[in-house]
Amino acid sequence: MVKFKDICTKIGSGATPKGGKEAYCEDGISLIRSQNVLDFAFSADGLAFINDLQAEKLKNVIVEKGDVLLNITGDSVARACMVDKKYLPARVNQHVCIVRADLQKAVPSYLLYFLQLNKEYLLQLAAGGATRNALTKEMINNLELELPSIEDQQKITAILDDIQARMDCNNAINENLAA
Question: Do residues 83 and 71 lie in contact, with contact meaning Cβ atoms separated by under 8 Å?
Fold first, then answer.
């Protein structure tokens, strides 16, 4: 068993620029908020944008290709996804945590599948004793998982990616049929 803190190079959340919604721009650097992070999917609906100066103040929470994003507060706690590179560069606000795998130790999508497979456990952790559902950095740092070799992680995620792609295709077909 290993802890997330031992296989990740970054675990951390951001902030909302001063001024809240009024500080957002029509375009610029993406600011990913909890509403954008769904289970296994990134939603661009309501994606906010900030300018270069605001982004500079959030330079410690730059989203990189392969980062797993995890909602850490509120009703959407424990939802996790990865963001498509077309939305980069990006930053996250205080409700979203970046989980960045050490690529020498872990495959990012393996961590995503682990988080989603253990969502019920994460929800229990988040509900523990607080007035609002929340996952803390310490909770995420101390999550434990069995970690096979990189090669085995790649094999496992290839199978899971194929299943997920088929589910996405079936959901799209169902949506088209319903329409």
Answer: no
pLDDT of residue 65: 96
Cβ neighbours around 126 below 10 Å, total: 20
Predicted local distance difference test score (pLDDT) of residue 8: 98
The CATH number of whichever domain residue 61 belongs to comes to: 3.90.220.20
Domains contained in the chain, number:
1
For 76-114, the pLDDT digits (tens) are 999 999 999 999 999 999 999 999 999 999 999 999 999
Low-confidence ranges of the chain (pLDDT < 50): none
11 neighbors 5 (Cβ within 8 angstroms): yes
Identify the domain containing residue 78 by its residue range: 2-178
Contact 72, 97 (CB under 8 A): yes
Element (H, E) at 141: helix 137-141
Between CA 74 and CA 17 the distance in angstroms is 19
With beta carbons less than 8 A apart as the criterion, state whether 161 and 114 touch: no
